[in-house]
Amino acid sequence: MTVIRVWAPYAKEVQVILDGTSYPMLSTRHGWWMLDSPLAGHGSDYAFVLDGSGPLPDPRSPWQPYGVHGFSRMLDHSLFSWTDDRWQAPPLSSAVIYELHTGTFSPQGTFQGVAQKLDHLVDLGITHIELMPVNSFSGTHGWGYDGVGLFAPHEPYGGPAGLKELVDECHARGIAVILDVVYNHLGPEGNYLDRFGPYFTNRYSSPWGNAVNLDGPGSDEVRRFFIENALMWLKDYHMDVLRLDAVHAIIDTSSVHFLEELSQEVEMLQARTGRHLALIAESNLNNPRIVQPREIGGYGIDAQWNDDFHHALHTVLTGEKNGYYGDFGTLSDLAQAMEEIFVYSGRYSAFRGRKHGRPVRGVSGNKFLAYLQNHDQIGNRARGERLNHLVDTGRFMLGSALVFASACIPMIFQGEEWAASSPFQYFTDHQDEELGKAVVTGRREEFAAFGWDPGDIPDPQDPATFERSKPLWEELEHEPHTSVLAWYKGLIRLRRELPVLKDGSLSQILISYHEEEQWLAMNRGPVMVVCNFSRHSRRIGIYDGQKREVLLTSRSGVVYREDSITLPGETAAILLQS
Amino acid sequence: MTVIRVWAPYAKEVQVILDGTSYPMLSTRHGWWMLDSPLAGHGSDYAFVLDGSGPLPDPRSPWQPYGVHGFSRMLDHSLFSWTDDRWQAPPLSSAVIYELHTGTFSPQGTFQGVAQKLDHLVDLGITHIELMPVNSFSGTHGWGYDGVGLFAPHEPYGGPAGLKELVDECHARGIAVILDVVYNHLGPEGNYLDRFGPYFTNRYSSPWGNAVNLDGPGSDEVRRFFIENALMWLKDYHMDVLRLDAVHAIIDTSSVHFLEELSQEVEMLQARTGRHLALIAESNLNNPRIVQPREIGGYGIDAQWNDDFHHALHTVLTGEKNGYYGDFGTLSDLAQAMEEIFVYSGRYSAFRGRKHGRPVRGVSGNKFLAYLQNHDQIGNRARGERLNHLVDTGRFMLGSALVFASACIPMIFQGEEWAASSPFQYFTDHQDEELGKAVVTGRREEFAAFGWDPGDIPDPQDPATFERSKPLWEELEHEPHTSVLAWYKGLIRLRRELPVLKDGSLSQILISYHEEEQWLAMNRGPVMVVCNFSRHSRRIGIYDGQKREVLLTSRSGVVYREDSITLPGETAAILLQS
C-alpha cells in the first residue's frame, strides 16, 4: 500500500493518473490531497490532474524518466543497497573541495563517468567533490540552475540510481559529496509549481523573475518543500553537505529566516544520525550573519563562498577592471581578503553604487571558501575562459598558492588542477524554441554592453558549446599540465600535513606587501608564503631571525637566505620555520 | 553666507530659484549640488529646477509654508529660544504614553491647541505624548501618514515654530514628546523625491506601492535622508523619542539593516548629548530581533508596539471575529499576551495563512507597548468606533485595568481616558481630485467585502468626517465620562506608585483563568489583578494565605475575603499584599 500525496491548496478536485488509470484523490488538511493505493509502488508512473487540467508532474517527483514535462515515477529509496555504513565525512575545516559539472566532467557526462574519474581525485588529495545541480532541468545538458524537478536527479546523468551509486562509490574512496541546490528560483521551463500552490510571490523580484514565497500566505508548505528537499538529499542520497545557490536572492522577512530554519533542521538530522552534515551558502551580501551561530542571531550556516577573495586575487593576476572587478585590483584589497575575509565590510562599492558589507569579527576563516576559479567566474565570462587562458601558466600557479595557504577552505574547479585548455562556457538545451532564442539574444546583448561582437559569443543552445566545455583528459600527459598537476598536488599535500593551514585563525595572519614592486608576503604562524606578482625578479627582506626551509616553489630559481628571499618574476614560494 | 545643498544624482544641470531669481548650482561629489549664497538665509523662499524641470520643493525642506507643492523656505534652527536646558525625559520603563492627533485633539487643531490641553494631561498623570505624524502632507487635514515633506512640520498645525513651542512647553510641564515618523513609504501627492534620485525601488513592493530603496544602487544617500530626518527631530525639535511607523514594510536585505543603523546613530547622539533618547517601532513581524541589542544580532530598537496584546484583549471584550481578530478570542490568548508578549510566537495564523512569529525570550516587558486602543485600531474600522462605542462603559473600564497592570508600557489614545463619544474616523484632504475619489472608492470597496453598505462608510474627503473626529471636551464634565477619567487617573497613579508594575519582569507574572466562567486573575509579585469578563457575578477563590487590600475597583460591589474575591459582572479589581 503506497500513499500518494500532493499539496494543491487551490484545487477543487485532484486526480492522480496511475499507470494509465485516473483515480480521484481525497482532500485532507491544509490543502493536501491523498490516495492510498495498493496498485502504486516503486516504478509506477503517475501524474496529477488539477480541476481537469493536466497531467502535471509531481512537484516532489523523485524520478522524471521522461524529462521535466513528463510523468513522474515512484521510487522506493529503501531498495538501494548502500555500502557506506561506516562512512564519516571529514570536517569542513580540513576540506579541499573540487567543484565539478556532471555533464562535462567525464567524456560520458554521467554520474558513472564521474565515478570513473575518482582515481584522479583521490590521487590529487581531494576530500570533497561538489556537484553542480543535478536536479531535473529541461533538455539534456545545462548547468543545472534552471532546475524544476528539485527532488528528481536528472535522468540523462543517470537518474536516482546513478547518483546513489556515485555517492556510495565516493564514500568508499574516502571522498565526501557536496550537492549544489537552488532554492532562490526555479527554471523557466517545466515549472508547474504555481499551478499547484503559492510557491511564488510578486512582492519581491529576483534576477530570475518572481521570488519564491517564503513569508506570504501559504508559505509554510513552500518552506517545507525546500527544507524537505534538503533533508531528502542528505538522508536518501547520503549527501554530506549542501551548497545553497545565491542565498542573497532568497527574500524572507518573517521572524525565522528560511536559512535559519534550514540550518536548524540539518542540525537536528545530524544529531539524530551522528553523521557530519553541513551547509555552505553562496552569498554576495558580505553579511557575517549567514555563518554566525543562531544563538547570537545568525543563520547558523557552516560556511559561505567568499567572492571578495576571488575578485581581489583575480584582478591582481589579470589586471581586469570590467564590471565588479572594478571594485578590486590592489594588493591592499588582496591582503584584506586574506586577513579579514571581506574586502567590502562597509566600504563604498562603485559597482553596487552603495556601501557594502560589514566586518567579520570573531568568526573562523573555516567559515569561508577561497577559490581561484569556480563555475561562475569562468562560465559567466563571454567565452568561458579559465584563468590560465588569461595569464601565463606561471602566473596562474602563483595565484593558487594563496588559495591553499589562506585561512579559508580551498576549492578548485574541474580541470583547474592541470590548467585545462578547455573553456567552461554557458550552455543550455531549452526545448522551448522561444526561450532558447531569448537566452541566446539575452546573452549576446549582455556582452554587447561590454563591447563584444555578437558573433564572438558562443551560442548557449549550440551543442558544440556544451561539447567544447568538456575538459580534455588526454592533455594531462603533457606539459605544462603535468607540472601544474604536480604543483596542485604539492599544495594539497601541504595543507593536509600542516595543521596550522587548517586552523582558520585570522588573528595569526600577518601580511606585508608592496603595491609598486608587486609582491606580498604572508605569515601564518610558522608558515610563510611569498608571492612575486611582478614580471621581474624581487628580493624581499626577512628580518625576524627565524630559520626557515623552502617547502614549495611554483617555479625554479628561488633563492632563500636567512634575511631575504629572491623570487623570479611571477613566482610563489612557501616556507616553514625549521 | 548660507550653503544650499541638494542631492540630485540624475540631473545634468540644477538651478535654485532663490527669492525669485534663478542661480546655477555647482555639481560636487556623489550627486550633490551646492551653492554658497550671501543672499540666502532664514526666511528665504527657494526651490530647485532639475534639467529645466521645476520648480520643485527641496526633499529636505525644513519649512513648506505654501504646502507640499510650493516653494520651500529656509529655516535657522538656532533662532528659537529653548527653555528646556535642564529637561531630562523619564525612561521608557516608567512611561505612560498618550497618543494624539494634532489636527483633532484640540478645537483649534494646532500645536498651540495641544499646548492648551497640557493641564489635562499633567493632571491625568501622562509622562509622554505621542504626536501622530506632523510632517507636511497634502491638504489641510489628514492622519499624517501620507507625508511628503518629511523635514517640514505641517504648516496648518503651526509649522516649525509652533512645533518647537509645543515641545518646549511640554518639557516645561514635565512631559516628554514622542514623534511618529514614517520611513516605509511616502504619500501619493506632492512626492517629488523620485525626480531627484533613486529614493524608491521596484524590487520590493509595499502596501503603498514601490518600496523605499534602502539596499540598491544609490541607497547610501536614501538611508542618510531618513537617518538625518530622525536626527533632526531629536536635535532641532528636542523630540525625546521617535515612533517608527510600520517597520515591517521597511525592506532592507543589506548586511546592516536600516533599523540597526538608525538605532546606532540615535545611541551615538544620546552619548554625545547625555539626553535620554529612544526609538519605538510599530512592527507586525512578531520578531524579537527588532528590540534585541545589536550585540546579539538585534536591531537595538528600544521598544515596539504589541498588537497581539491589543487583539487578544479586544476580542475578549467585544467578541469580534472579523479579519485579524479571527486569530484571537480566548482568555488563553490573552494570558499568553500578558505572560509571553506574542500570542503568535510560531503558531499558525489563519489570518496570515502561515506560521507567525517567534518567542520573546529574556527580553523585558518594558520593550513592548500595551494598549486598549490606538489610532489604527479605532480609525481603521469602517466608522472609526472607539471601544466604548462597542461595549458598555463598565466593560471598557475592565479592559484598561489589564493595560496598566501589564508588564508592558501602557499607551492610551486621545479621549480614551474619558470614553469620548466622538469617533476617530479616516479622513483625508487630498487636493488631487482623482486621488480623492480613489481614496473614497477604495475605502468603500474595502469595507463592502465585510458586508458594509457604501453609504454607511464616512467619506474620508468630506470635511465633516474630520470634524466629527474631534473629541468633545465639554463631555468631560458629565457622567459617565467623569467616572471613567477618575478610573484612568487611579490606574496611572497606581503605576506611578507601585515600582513592581514598571519592572518589566515577565517571569513574575502568574495567570489563572477560566474560559467558561470568563474570569482571569493575574499575580505580579505583590499585586493581583482580577477581571470578571462575564455579565454575572463571580466568586474567585484565592488560596495562598496572603493578606491583601483592595486598591482599585472599576465599579462598586466587589467583596474581598481572605480566601476569595467576588466581583460583579464586567468588573476589575486590583489588590495589593498588605
TrEMBL record, chains A, B:
Residues 79-495 form the Glycosyl hydrolase family 13 catalytic domain. Belongs to the glycosyl hydrolase 13 family. It catalyses: hydrolysis of (1->4)-alpha-D-glucosidic linkage in 4-alpha-D-[(1->4)-alpha-D-glucanosyl]n trehalose to yield trehalose and (1->4)-alpha-D-glucan. This is Malto-oligosyltrehalose trehalohydrolase. Its EC number is 3.2.1.141. It is found in: Cytoplasm. Pfam families: Alpha-amylase. The gene is treZ. GO terms for biological process: trehalose biosynthetic process. PANTHER family: 1,4-ALPHA-GLUCAN-BRANCHING ENZYME, MALTO-OLIGOSYLTREHALOSE TREHALOHYDROLASE.
